Amino acid sequence: MTDELSGDVLGRFVKGDLDAFESLFRVFGADVEQWVMRILRDRSTAEDAVVEAFWRAYRGRARFDPSRSFGAWMRRIATNVALDHLKALRRRRRWVGLKDEMAAPAETDPSLSESVRHAFEGLPDKLQIVAALALIEERPYGEIAETLQVPVGTVKSRVYRAIRALRKELARAGIHP
Amino acid sequence: MNEENLKELLRSALPPATGQGPIRDLWPAIVQRIESPPAWSWLDISILAAVTIGILVFPSSLILMALNL
Predict the structure, then answer these.
(1) What is the DSSP letter of A120?
(2) Which of A26, A111, B30, B41 is deepest in the core (most CB within 10 A)?
(3) Shortest CB distance from B26 goes to which of A29, A37, A38?
(4) Which one of A51, A68, A100 terminates a domain?
(5) Residues A50 and A87 in one domain
Protein backbone atom coordinates (compact mmCIF):
# COMPACT_ATOMS: atom_id res chain seq x y z
CA MET A 1 0.00 0.00 0.00
CA THR A 2 1.15 3.50 -0.76
CA ASP A 3 2.14 5.27 2.41
CA GLU A 4 3.54 8.55 1.17
CA LEU A 5 1.17 10.92 2.86
CA SER A 6 2.26 13.94 4.78
CA GLY A 7 1.99 13.84 8.54
CA ASP A 8 -0.30 16.86 8.18
CA VAL A 9 -3.03 14.80 6.50
CA LEU A 10 -2.71 12.06 9.11
CA GLY A 11 -2.73 14.61 11.91
CA ARG A 12 -5.86 16.27 10.54
CA PHE A 13 -7.51 12.85 10.19
CA VAL A 14 -6.84 12.09 13.87
CA LYS A 15 -8.55 15.39 14.73
CA GLY A 16 -11.62 14.32 12.72
CA ASP A 17 -11.11 16.34 9.51
CA LEU A 18 -13.37 14.63 6.94
CA ASP A 19 -11.47 16.11 3.97
CA ALA A 20 -8.24 14.57 5.24
CA PHE A 21 -10.05 11.28 5.70
CA GLU A 22 -11.32 11.44 2.13
CA SER A 23 -7.74 11.99 0.93
CA LEU A 24 -6.73 8.86 2.82
CA PHE A 25 -9.65 6.93 1.35
CA ARG A 26 -8.68 8.03 -2.17
CA VAL A 27 -5.15 6.71 -1.63
CA PHE A 28 -5.89 3.52 0.30
CA GLY A 29 -9.51 2.64 -0.57
CA ALA A 30 -8.74 0.53 -3.65
CA ASP A 31 -6.03 -1.44 -1.85
CA VAL A 32 -8.31 -2.08 1.11
CA GLU A 33 -11.11 -3.24 -1.20
CA GLN A 34 -8.74 -5.53 -3.04
CA TRP A 35 -7.48 -6.98 0.25
CA VAL A 36 -11.01 -7.58 1.54
CA MET A 37 -12.02 -9.16 -1.78
CA ARG A 38 -9.15 -11.62 -1.37
CA ILE A 39 -10.62 -12.75 1.93
CA LEU A 40 -14.36 -12.56 1.27
CA ARG A 41 -14.39 -13.36 -2.47
CA ASP A 42 -17.78 -11.68 -2.92
CA ARG A 43 -18.06 -8.18 -4.40
CA SER A 44 -21.15 -7.00 -2.56
CA THR A 45 -19.98 -8.30 0.83
CA ALA A 46 -16.54 -6.81 0.21
CA GLU A 47 -18.04 -3.37 -0.49
CA ASP A 48 -20.04 -3.52 2.75
CA ALA A 49 -16.87 -4.53 4.57
CA VAL A 50 -14.90 -1.61 3.10
CA VAL A 51 -17.56 0.89 4.22
CA GLU A 52 -17.61 -0.71 7.67
CA ALA A 53 -13.80 -0.72 7.89
CA PHE A 54 -13.45 2.98 7.02
CA TRP A 55 -16.28 3.83 9.41
CA ARG A 56 -14.51 1.91 12.19
CA ALA A 57 -11.25 3.66 11.31
CA TYR A 58 -12.91 7.07 11.55
CA ARG A 59 -14.60 6.15 14.82
CA GLY A 60 -11.30 4.90 16.25
CA ARG A 61 -9.13 7.68 14.75
CA ALA A 62 -7.99 8.88 18.18
CA ARG A 63 -6.17 5.57 18.65
CA PHE A 64 -4.15 6.00 15.44
CA ASP A 65 -0.55 7.11 15.82
CA PRO A 66 0.26 9.41 12.84
CA SER A 67 3.91 8.33 12.96
CA ARG A 68 2.85 4.77 12.02
CA SER A 69 1.69 3.38 8.68
CA PHE A 70 -1.93 4.26 7.93
CA GLY A 71 -2.05 1.53 5.26
CA ALA A 72 -1.02 -1.24 7.66
CA TRP A 73 -3.44 0.05 10.34
CA MET A 74 -6.28 0.22 7.82
CA ARG A 75 -5.54 -3.26 6.52
CA ARG A 76 -5.68 -4.69 10.05
CA ILE A 77 -9.06 -3.05 10.64
CA ALA A 78 -10.31 -4.32 7.26
CA THR A 79 -9.13 -7.85 8.09
CA ASN A 80 -11.06 -7.82 11.38
CA VAL A 81 -14.16 -6.56 9.58
CA ALA A 82 -13.72 -9.23 6.89
CA LEU A 83 -13.45 -11.88 9.61
CA ASP A 84 -16.76 -10.66 11.09
CA HIS A 85 -18.37 -10.81 7.64
CA LEU A 86 -16.92 -14.29 7.08
CA LYS A 87 -18.55 -15.46 10.30
CA ALA A 88 -21.86 -13.88 9.27
CA LEU A 89 -21.63 -15.49 5.81
CA ARG A 90 -20.93 -18.86 7.43
CA ARG A 91 -23.95 -18.49 9.74
CA ARG A 92 -26.13 -17.50 6.78
CA ARG A 93 -24.95 -20.46 4.70
CA ARG A 94 -25.61 -22.77 7.60
CA TRP A 95 -29.17 -21.55 8.03
CA VAL A 96 -30.21 -20.70 4.52
CA GLY A 97 -28.02 -23.12 2.62
CA LEU A 98 -26.58 -20.52 0.27
CA LYS A 99 -24.19 -22.23 -2.09
CA ASP A 100 -23.84 -19.97 -5.06
CA GLU A 101 -22.18 -16.89 -3.61
CA MET A 102 -18.72 -17.84 -4.80
CA ALA A 103 -18.87 -18.08 -8.57
CA ALA A 104 -16.69 -20.69 -10.23
CA PRO A 105 -15.37 -20.40 -13.77
CA ALA A 106 -17.57 -22.06 -16.36
CA GLU A 107 -14.82 -24.31 -17.75
CA THR A 108 -14.25 -26.04 -14.39
CA ASP A 109 -16.00 -29.34 -13.66
CA PRO A 110 -18.99 -28.17 -11.57
CA SER A 111 -18.98 -31.14 -9.19
CA LEU A 112 -15.22 -30.84 -8.61
CA SER A 113 -15.51 -27.08 -8.05
CA GLU A 114 -18.39 -27.63 -5.68
CA SER A 115 -16.38 -30.15 -3.66
CA VAL A 116 -13.37 -27.83 -3.49
CA ARG A 117 -15.51 -24.85 -2.51
CA HIS A 118 -17.31 -26.95 0.09
CA ALA A 119 -13.99 -28.06 1.57
CA PHE A 120 -12.69 -24.46 1.55
CA GLU A 121 -15.84 -23.03 3.14
CA GLY A 122 -15.71 -25.75 5.77
CA LEU A 123 -12.35 -24.54 7.09
CA PRO A 124 -12.41 -22.64 10.40
CA ASP A 125 -12.30 -18.85 9.85
CA LYS A 126 -8.64 -18.45 10.83
CA LEU A 127 -7.55 -21.23 8.50
CA GLN A 128 -9.83 -20.02 5.70
CA ILE A 129 -8.25 -16.55 5.78
CA VAL A 130 -4.69 -17.86 5.53
CA ALA A 131 -5.73 -20.42 2.90
CA ALA A 132 -7.28 -17.65 0.80
CA LEU A 133 -4.31 -15.32 1.19
CA ALA A 134 -1.45 -17.82 1.02
CA LEU A 135 -2.73 -20.60 -1.25
CA ILE A 136 -5.14 -18.81 -3.61
CA GLU A 137 -3.79 -15.24 -3.67
CA GLU A 138 -0.17 -16.30 -3.03
CA ARG A 139 0.56 -13.39 -0.71
CA PRO A 140 3.88 -13.51 1.17
CA TYR A 141 3.74 -15.05 4.66
CA GLY A 142 5.32 -11.89 6.12
CA GLU A 143 2.54 -9.70 4.77
CA ILE A 144 -0.15 -12.06 6.08
CA ALA A 145 1.54 -12.24 9.48
CA GLU A 146 1.79 -8.45 9.76
CA THR A 147 -1.85 -7.95 8.87
CA LEU A 148 -3.15 -10.67 11.16
CA GLN A 149 -0.72 -9.50 13.87
CA VAL A 150 0.64 -13.00 14.44
CA PRO A 151 4.16 -14.41 14.02
CA VAL A 152 5.16 -15.81 10.61
CA GLY A 153 5.45 -19.22 12.28
CA THR A 154 1.77 -19.07 13.19
CA VAL A 155 0.87 -18.30 9.57
CA LYS A 156 2.96 -21.28 8.40
CA SER A 157 1.31 -23.50 10.96
CA ARG A 158 -2.17 -22.36 9.91
CA VAL A 159 -1.35 -22.93 6.24
CA TYR A 160 -0.15 -26.43 7.10
CA ARG A 161 -3.32 -27.14 9.08
CA ALA A 162 -5.48 -25.72 6.28
CA ILE A 163 -3.76 -27.94 3.70
CA ARG A 164 -4.19 -30.99 5.93
CA ALA A 165 -7.88 -30.22 6.50
CA LEU A 166 -8.50 -29.58 2.79
CA ARG A 167 -6.75 -32.82 1.81
CA LYS A 168 -8.80 -34.77 4.33
CA GLU A 169 -12.08 -33.24 3.17
CA LEU A 170 -11.26 -33.69 -0.53
CA ALA A 171 -10.19 -37.30 0.04
CA ARG A 172 -13.58 -37.95 1.63
CA ALA A 173 -15.13 -36.67 -1.61
CA GLY A 174 -12.89 -39.06 -3.56
CA ILE A 175 -10.66 -36.33 -5.02
CA HIS A 176 -7.00 -37.33 -5.37
CA PRO A 177 -5.54 -35.25 -8.23
CA MET B 1 -1.68 -34.74 -3.52
CA ASN B 2 1.19 -32.26 -3.24
CA GLU B 3 0.84 -28.61 -2.24
CA GLU B 4 1.11 -27.31 -5.80
CA ASN B 5 -1.69 -29.60 -7.03
CA LEU B 6 -3.87 -28.48 -4.16
CA LYS B 7 -3.16 -24.81 -4.91
CA GLU B 8 -4.02 -25.35 -8.56
CA LEU B 9 -7.26 -27.08 -7.62
CA LEU B 10 -8.19 -24.27 -5.23
CA ARG B 11 -7.37 -21.57 -7.76
CA SER B 12 -9.45 -23.28 -10.46
CA ALA B 13 -12.49 -23.51 -8.19
CA LEU B 14 -11.93 -20.16 -6.46
CA PRO B 15 -10.19 -17.78 -8.88
CA PRO B 16 -7.85 -15.21 -7.27
CA ALA B 17 -9.34 -11.78 -6.67
CA THR B 18 -6.14 -10.09 -7.84
CA GLY B 19 -6.74 -7.38 -10.41
CA GLN B 20 -10.38 -6.84 -9.53
CA GLY B 21 -10.38 -3.12 -8.84
CA PRO B 22 -13.20 -1.08 -7.30
CA ILE B 23 -16.32 -0.79 -9.45
CA ARG B 24 -18.11 2.06 -7.70
CA ASP B 25 -17.10 4.94 -5.47
CA LEU B 26 -17.75 3.93 -1.87
CA TRP B 27 -16.92 7.34 -0.35
CA PRO B 28 -20.57 8.59 -0.31
CA ALA B 29 -21.61 5.42 1.55
CA ILE B 30 -18.79 5.92 4.07
CA VAL B 31 -19.80 9.55 4.70
CA GLN B 32 -23.43 8.50 5.09
CA ARG B 33 -22.39 5.85 7.61
CA ILE B 34 -20.27 8.35 9.56
CA GLU B 35 -23.01 10.95 9.64
CA SER B 36 -25.85 8.58 10.50
CA PRO B 37 -26.93 8.59 14.15
CA PRO B 38 -25.53 5.69 16.16
CA ALA B 39 -27.75 2.63 16.00
CA TRP B 40 -29.33 1.28 19.18
CA SER B 41 -27.46 -1.73 20.49
CA TRP B 42 -29.14 -4.74 22.09
CA LEU B 43 -27.70 -3.53 25.41
CA ASP B 44 -29.41 -0.12 25.00
CA ILE B 45 -32.72 -1.79 24.15
CA SER B 46 -32.42 -4.22 27.06
CA ILE B 47 -31.72 -1.43 29.57
CA LEU B 48 -34.63 0.64 28.24
CA ALA B 49 -36.96 -2.38 28.43
CA ALA B 50 -35.81 -3.21 31.98
CA VAL B 51 -36.36 0.37 33.17
CA THR B 52 -39.80 0.56 31.50
CA ILE B 53 -40.90 -2.74 33.03
CA GLY B 54 -39.49 -1.64 36.40
CA ILE B 55 -41.54 1.58 36.31
CA LEU B 56 -44.71 -0.26 35.21
CA VAL B 57 -44.37 -2.93 37.90
CA PHE B 58 -43.18 -0.57 40.66
CA PRO B 59 -44.63 2.90 39.87
CA SER B 60 -43.51 4.11 43.29
CA SER B 61 -39.90 3.76 42.11
CA LEU B 62 -40.48 6.97 40.10
CA ILE B 63 -40.82 8.88 43.39
CA LEU B 64 -37.60 7.31 44.66
CA MET B 65 -35.81 8.30 41.46
CA ALA B 66 -37.23 11.83 41.65
CA LEU B 67 -35.98 12.13 45.23
CA ASN B 68 -32.49 11.16 44.10
CA LEU B 69 -32.35 13.79 41.37
Answers:
(1) H
(2) B30
(3) A29
(4) A100
(5) yes
Nearest residue on chain A to B22, alpha-carbon basis: A30
Give DSSP secondary structure letters for A14-66: HTT-HHHHHHHHHHHHHHHHHHHHHHH--HHHHHHHHHHHHHHHHHTGGG--T
Q: Over chain B, what HEC string results?
A: CCHHHHHHHHHHHCCCCCCCCCCCCCHHHHHHHHHCCCCCCHHHHHHHHHHHHHHHHCCCHHHHHHHCC
Structural domain boundaries, residue A65 = 1-100
Spacing of C-alpha A78 from chain mean position: 7
Q: Phi first, then psi: what are they for A176, rounded to 5°?
A: -135, 75
Rounded to 5°, angle at Cα A104 from A103 and A106: 120
pLDDT digits (tens, 9 = 90+) for A95-130: 665 554 454 454 556 688 888 888 998 899 899 999
Residues of B in contact with A128 (CB under 8 A): none
CA distance B10 to A98: 20
Amino acid at B53: I
- For chain B, state the CA radius of gyration: 27
pLDDT digits (tens, 9 = 90+) for A21-65: 999 999 999 999 999 999 988 888 899 999 999 999 999 999 998
B10 → closest Cβ in A47, A54, A136: A136
Cα radius of gyration (chain A): 18
Domain harbouring A175, CATH code: 1.10.10.10
Domain count along chain A: 2
